[in-house]
Design a protein that fits this description.
4 copies of one chain form a homotetramer. With 149 residues, chain A is α/β, with parallel strands linked by helices. Chain A is 35% helix and 23% strand. Chain A is globular and about 35 Å long.
């Protein structure tokens, strides 16, 4: 593989700026940024990564590559709906959650079921357990994620 | 469909007695009990349902019907690993969680993403949100779940 | 498990009468009839099974139990779209194909990848390989399928 | 997206040389080569693409990125077993089949169910239908695939 893959998960337009900064920092550290390929946090993280010259993968729920946002370099159309949440986190060596709703919680849970380290950027899901860390800033989130690699 | 389908999710042998009682009560109320088809909480809930003359469905992660526990009447071998957690909760009109680890949390999250009501039997996952209720006993868990139907 | 599970796959309203007869015969032999839970061949096979007093399982592509046709006793909502075709054949000890288009061919292929015997009722997909038999009538299709169990 | 994505599917070590040439030609034409990420035809197609300076995506059945062959640039671990065959073809604008067994036939069928053009390189699966073309050489296979884009 070309480099380390880190997934940025989450949702909510109000979290876009923080997600963009996370994506930018990951790319600056040489990581490939993996997302769910759609809007809000997913688009922002990819946009940030591209702004820093990075590479992005979008793992889509549907069957159409055209659903990927414009900052996705390589799109995977899984066709399996919410089932793709498993692929989004399995395809990363570490996961950073920025906001998000139930789908994000499913991804956090799957990440831990698979042993992937998870960093939740505040404010985020209130869920505790082995392998979950919390970060106060995008910088800290990326530092904590990279410390596992 | 023959009747109301309620999923019982969770894991941990220490939760088997409570899960068995949940399964028994659901069957006594005429519900079909859906589980992930394997051991511990899944087996106990199905065993309880069968003891009360109920019907059980086991939705397995693997490709082999023979993996189903002996209290599964109808087995579905999905072949999609953890992705089957989505099917376990999508196939129910309400979900009751008894203990459980990360896979159970993914199921709780998917259930809510799909709008299914969730009842967490204490002690259980500490996760709050719209559509999640907590119960102190198997009886209360079943009553809360059935109140949504 | 309660009994032998046999999947009836296919599509095309012109194949409904033959599929209904296949479903009826399978139920008369005590088999549980598994289908994809939607219309045409899937509905006809389930209708036939119910007419003979049998039991039916419908494994749906979507997230809604209400999508199941009225002859489905127990519905599984997988939420994984075409990915559910894998579950339809993995959940059977033998598979009978009645007409069908590309989705049916994917199911035939998956069935053989998993080692499930397949019977194609004429006229049907022209695909040959180890473990695929062809039948001239619903009676012969069911006899060939049951001979493997 | 960075460029056109074309999937190379199939199996069988005896088909490796032809698959490698297909991968090389696709990369020479600027296409990103998508495969199932494992061995034989999948590895050969990726190896050919890398030899021509191309980019490769491997969409794996398992949960481990480390399962990807060494010529995969970007790996996606779907965790859904054979269900990943759907993603392999949905993630391409055209599909080229080189040899292969039942899994490959499932991919051909899914590709057509989703409307993706399929080119089968001789000798290959004997299956006919709208949207399936046959090629006598890797050059012809790539030309036919690219003519659809």
């Amino acid at each position: 593989m070309t480099g380390t893959q880190v997934s940025v998960i989450g949702s909510g337009e109000e979290n876009a700026a923080r997600a963009e900064e996370v994506g930018r920092l990951l790319a600056a550290h040489g990581c490939t940024v993996v997302t769910g390929g759609l809007g809000e946090v997913m688009a922002a993280a990819a946009r940030g990564a591209k702004a820093a010259g990075g590479t992005t993968i979008g793992i889509l729920p549907g069957e159409r590559l055209a659903d990927a946002n414009e900052w996705v370099d390589y799109a995977v159309a899984t066709g399996i709906g919410h089932g793709r949440n498993l692929a989004v986190v399995a395809s990363a060596q570490a996961v950073i959650a920025v906001g998000g709703s139930w789908g994000t919680l499913a991804e956090i849970a799957f990440a831990r079921a698979l042993g992937r380290p998870v960093v939740i950027l505040e404010p985020g899901w209130q869920v505790a357990g082995d392998g979950i860390e919390r970060a106060e800033s995008p910088e800290q989130a990326v530092d904590l994620a990279l410390a596992h690699l």
